[in-house]
Design a protein that fits this description.
four-stranded antiparallel beta sheet, 2 domains, 15% strand, alpha+beta
Length: 105
């Protein structure tokens, strides 16, 4: 009986440890790369934000997005173009809609 209880205890601990490992690994997975419906702002001022020529489709590479002044990356809805996204938005709406921001040069 003691051996059975010891085996059950061992099995329970092994299952618990496996569950903890799986949960921990899933919690620390890196975010997926941005798809082609993400755009980086290449301009240097708010005056350039509404011009779609100042936005480049994301290649999935890590861009320098540090700061608070300007948008850096926007993620568009499926089927939406950068022109659709920018159309009719104020500068502040574009900044607020950015996933990340960058400093103004």
């Amino acid at each position: 009986m003691k051996k059975l209880l010891a085996n059950l205890k061992f099995t329970f601990i092994a299952l618990l440890a496996t569950g903890i490992i799986l949960i921990t690994q899933s919690a620390f997975k890196s975010s997926p790369k941005q798809d082609s419906n993400s755009y980086y702002f290449t301009g240097n001022s708010t005056a350039e934000m509404t011009n779609s020529n100042n936005w480049t489709a994301s290649s999935g590479s890590d861009e320098e997005c540090r700061g608070v002044d300007l948008p850096c990356l926007v993620v568009l809805a499926d089927g939406q173009t950068i022109n659709d996204y920018l159309n009719g938005k104020t500068d502040q709406e574009i900044i607020d809609g950015a996933t990340t921001r960058k400093a103004q040069n």
